[in-house]
Specification:
This protein is of the alpha+beta class. Helix content is about 35%, strand content about 30%. It is built from 8 helices and 9 strands. A hairpin with a 2-residue loop joins strand 5 (about 175-180) and strand 6 (about 185-195). The longest helix is centred in the N-terminal third of the chain and has 17 residues, at about 5-20. The radius of gyration is 19 Å and the shape is globular. The protein starts with a helix and ends with a helix.
């Protein structure tokens, strides 16, 4: 393998360890304490009850499970992978919410959340017939890992969260610096992509630079009612080669279909 490919492989491993081996934690305490009270107050005033967040248990029922996405392995993110919004820092305050979403950190005022890691299975025999080592490596490691987070919000929290994320993506499109665990990554470009799903959906291709090499990640958000599904994805082969990769459409569609 040429030196460039080796460097890019190291970059890919660094980005993946930061962005895709993290799990957001949440609780349903606000659901238990405030949900019924808010509903009763609204009813007594003759006003419609505010939209209620789903509990963590309810989110677990609609989270992806093994077998939901053909050709992909689905597993729960473990507690050892946890990262909080406080672990993610940026050099521009306006970009904070986008950095949190990209890294899979708990963000905003969600009442509960769950998280899954979805890893695509490599194609059988991929790269075996290629004479080019870099090309063979990219084909053999054409594996997309997607961190999938479900977060539920009270009232209009989900809509407000997406509006804030869109605003951050626009304001930070030209780039910012992201630091996780003491490691800096330069976000050099945020380009919006067309995605579908739920009542509202938005996606971006994010270009990241480290030590002169560039790679890309995908970030997608799908809202259904009070729940937002977030997808943060990277492809190891594409990251190592410096190329691009497709949206994890099958993962997005499978999760969107389970949202309520």
């Amino acid at each position: 393998m040429r030196p460039t490919a080796i460097r890019r492989t190291a970059v890919a491993a660094t980005v993946m360890s930061l962005a895709l081996l993290t799990a957001a934690c949440g609780s349903d305490a606000s659901d238990k304490d405030g949900g019924d009270k808010g509903k009763a107050d609204g009813a007594s005033l003759g006003k419609p009850a505010a939209a209620k967040a789903l509990t963590a248990a309810e989110l677990e029922k609609i989270s992806l499970a093994q077998g939901d996405v053909k050709g992909n392995k689905v597993s729960k993110a473990g507690p050892q992978d946890a990262v909080s919004a406080g672990d993610v820092t940026v050099d521009k305050a306006a970009c904070d919410v986008f950095g949190d979403a990209l890294m899979g950190a708990q963000s905003g005022s969600s009442a509960s959340s769950t998280q899954r890691k979805v890893i695509s299975e490599p194609k059988k025999g991929a790269g075996e017939d290629s004479a080019d080592l870099d090309e063979a490596f990219e084909a053999a490691f054409d594996i997309t890992t997607t961190l999938t987070t479900l977060s539920s919000y009270e009232g209009k929290g989900a809509e407000e969260y997406l509006a804030g994320l869109r605003s951050a993506a626009t304001g930070c499109a030209s780039g910012f610096t992201l630091t996780v665990g003491g490691t800096k990554q330069k976000i050099v470009k945020i380009a919006e992509e067309q995605v579908k799903g739920g009542e509202d959906a938005v996606g971006w291709t994010v270009t990241i630079e480290s030590e002169g090499d560039r790679t890309t990640m995908k970030l997608v958000q799908v809202r259904q009612g009070t729940t937002v599904a977030s997808f943060s994805a990277i492809n190891l082969g594409a990251a190592a080669s410096g190329g691009g990769f497709e949206m994890p459409t099958a993962v997005i569609e499978a999760q969107a279909a389970k949202l309520i």
